[in-house]
Amino acid sequence: MDSTTPAAVTVRMIALLHTYRRERGLPVTVSLEVPENGTRAIDIARDLDLPVERIEGLFLNGRLLGLGAPVMPGDRVAFVPQGTPASHPAFFGRAGIEEYAVSA
What we know:
Blueprint (H helix, E strand, L loop, with lengths): L5 E8 L2 H8 L5 E7 L3 E2 H7 L7 E6 L2 E3 L4 E2 L4 E6 L7 H4 L2 H5 L5
């Protein structure tokens, strides 16, 4: 496989993003193709037409990160909206969100 051959990632939306997708008749869990060399989480969020300004970060393979995090084939992604208790610094800290922060 070359670096542009697409491969799948699993993406879930939780909390208000789950509701956002359901209200539009869209699936809340999707399998998306990404290039073998990956893509940024924010680009996936935009491709899914999610309200990026309402996303705090994402769980990427169980680690809380910011939207600039690279997503690779086979990864598991769950977008986390602002105000979701699971994204509170007391649970996971802010280091990953800040490390991969993007300006929208």
